[in-house]
Design goal:
Number of helices: 20
Structural class: alpha/beta
Oligomer: single chain
CATH class of the largest domain: Alpha Beta
Strand content: 15-25%
CATH architecture of the largest domain: Alpha-Beta Barrel
Largest sheet: 8 strands, mixed, barrel
Radius of gyration: 39 Å
Bound molecules: ligand C2E, calcium ion
Length: about 525
């Protein structure tokens, strides 16, 4: 397809040279045949007065000079053609490669023919592996753009070393794709795991110790698709599923994934509409003081009746993580918190409001001032607000979280550690935050009566809290037997279906009145 200027030049020169040579040969033959030179010589001698010999020499010199000029011009043209072709190659390289890492880019991957991309692979069977880094943005924020560039270059080098002789493409940002030889699922999975292991090796950037995660999704030819294009779509879908599962996950494409993705896209669309219309509202589950039997506070639990239809309820455990993924979390959380504060401001006395704080909000330094702003707008006393946070939310950046909590606690807001016992945090991380309360996860409460080990854990949690001088709340209290045991162990508060599910705001007053009467107080 590519016909360079140089090629053109040489083919037309060749034609010219052939025509001129044939013409010259014919003229020479005719001249030899007709003794042209002897005749001309005799003519010059016979007409010495016309100085034809001088004219002839002048012609010869001009001819020679013309010849030298033509050669020089030809060489110049050749040089120019070469420079032009090199510039063309360079421009083409720039268009199809990523400047930072030197890898082929998205344009190369999307515009090159399938044969061209697969050309260098060692076998006809191949797989497409989509790779996306986890936490790149955070590292970029930490080490700056130059540091981020260094990280991307290092990742690219590691990828090229992991897939020698195969096609490694940087699609943009922290997304890469590899077209690798072979289509054995097990082998490709192993290769993906090894790659993640390699990519996640720590590196030091400007003196900062940095660790990055990576997820991969892969699809194999011909099992998952009949073209490179369809395979890369499948690998992308698998990558998406891997990312949802968490850091450093490998996923193979499975046909059901497209359907899941479609459903999720629909859910995302409805969630956007629901947030825009303010359709997600808090319900309230009472938290009861085990000594007095009175309601100490309510935990706000968000409810979304999709399409206004009870049967289409979506659990907050599903839509909060989704809101986090699609960037709706701040808007949604602030919306629900504002509504909950407005409701709580109407409750009598010192009944508290507990609100679940998503992990994503703890990455934002300004969250404390935004919460305080909502409190002042809605008129709720900060001392009546408790924020619940899970251990896993702290793992991301415990120092920042402790700063945020210190600012909130200084205003009178209390902080509870939610789902205690189920997370990955270490005691040293937890010691950085002075919690006001610990909520024992319901997975311990639901079987601690029969399960000796769980009983031991619950007992230890309660005495740990006593030792630290903080209160405990047992979650998921469902039976009177559990209630008795919790009282024996000195647990301060409990929450669960034994008392009530989460109820709409309109039923809170009724619940408070019911609990104020002694019959429910006598539970247990
Ligand atoms: P969580 O904070 O651990 O909330 C307690 C969950 O346990 C609630 O589920 C509640 O309905 C359920 N539960 C309460 N008592 C019992 C019981 O006796 N037995 C059993 N089996 N379950 C009980 P829900 O409302 O589905 O919420 C699930 C999770 O969603 C919550 O777990 C919380 O992490 C999250 N969530 C709910 N609302 C919000 C919110 O407004 N913001 C944020 N960030 N997360 C929320
Ligand atoms: Ca909670
Ligand atoms: Ca909980």
């Amino acid at each position: 397809m590519r016909k360079t200027f140089e090629n053109l030049l040489s083919s037309s020169s060749f034609r010219d040279a052939s025509v001129i040579s044939i013409a010259a040969l014919l003229i020479w033959l005719t001249a030899v045949e007709s003794d042209l030179y002897e005749r001309f010589h005799q003519y010059i001698i016979a007409h010495e007065d016309k100085e034809l010999d001088e004219v002839l020499i002048a012609f010869l010199i001009v001819g020679l000079a013309g010849y030298v000029f033509a050669i020089r011009r030809l060489l110049d043209l050749k040089k120019e053609a070469k420079a032009r072709s090199q510039a063309e190659i360079k421009a083409r390289w720039i268009a199809y490669h990523d400047f930072l890492t030197g890898l082929p880019n998205r344009r190369f991957f999307e515009e090159s023919s399938e044969e061209h991309i697969l050309d260098n692979l060692k076998s006809d069977a191949y797989s497409v592996i989509a790779i996306d880094l986890d936490g790149f943005k955070q590292v970029n924020d930490l080490v700056g753009h130059e540091g981020g560039d260094y990280l991307l270059k290092t990742v690219s080098e590691r990828l090229v070393a992991a897939f020698p002789g195969e096609v490694v493409v940087r699609l943009g940002g922290d997304e890469f794709v590899v077209v690798a030889s072979g289509n054995g699922r097990e082998r490709i999975r192993e290769k993906c795991s090894e790659t993640i292991h390699t990519l996640t090796q720590p590196m030091t950037i400007s003196g900062v110790h940095v660790e990055i995660g990576a997820c991969t999704g892969y699809a194999c030819y011909p099992q998952d698709g009949d073209s490179l294009k369809s395979l890369s779509l499948c690998a992308d879908i698998a990558l998406y599923a891997a990312k949802r599962e968490g850091r450093n996950t490998v996923k193979a494409y499975q046909p059901g994934m497209s359907e899941q993705l479609k459903r999720r896209a629909e859910l995302e669309g409805s969630l956007r509409v629901a947030v825009r219309r303010g359709e997600i509202i808090p319900h309230y589950q009472p938290m009861v003081d085990l000594q007095t039997g009175e309601i100490r506070g309510f935990e706000a639990l968000s409810r979304w009746q999709r399409n206004g239809n009870g049967a289409a309820n979506v659990s907050p455990a599903t839509f909060f993580p989704l809101a986090e993924e699609v960037g709706l979390i701040v808007e949604l959380s602030e919306q629900v918190l504002r509504k909950a504060c407005l409701d709580a401001a109407r409750w009598h006395g010192d009944v508290k409001l507990s609100f679940n704080l998503s992990a994503a909000l703890l990455c934002d330094r300004l969250i404390a001032s935004r919460i305080l702003m909502i409190l002042s707008e809605t008129g709720l006393d900060p001392a009546r607000l408790e924020l619940e946070v899970t251990e896993n939310a702290l793992v991301r950046d415990v120092d920042l979280a402790s700063e945020i909590f210190a600012a909130l606690q200084a205003e009178g807001i209390t902080i509870a550690l939610d789902d205690f016992g189920t997370g990955y945090s270490s005691l040293s991380q937890l010691s950085k935050i002075s919690f006001d309360k610990i909520k024992i996860d319901r997975s311990f409460i639901n079987s601690f009566e029969q399960d000796e080990t769980k009983y031991g854990i619950v007992k230890t949690m309660i005495s740990l809290a006593h030792g630290l001088g903080i209160d405990t709340v047992a979650e998921g209290l469902e039976t009177e037997g559990q209630l008795l045991k919790l009282k024996e162990l000195g647990c301060k508060y409990a929450q669960g279906f034994l008392y009530s599910e989460a109820v709409p705001a309109s039923q809170v007053e009724t619940l408070l009145e019911e609990f104020a009467l002694s019959d429910i107080k006598s539970c247990g």
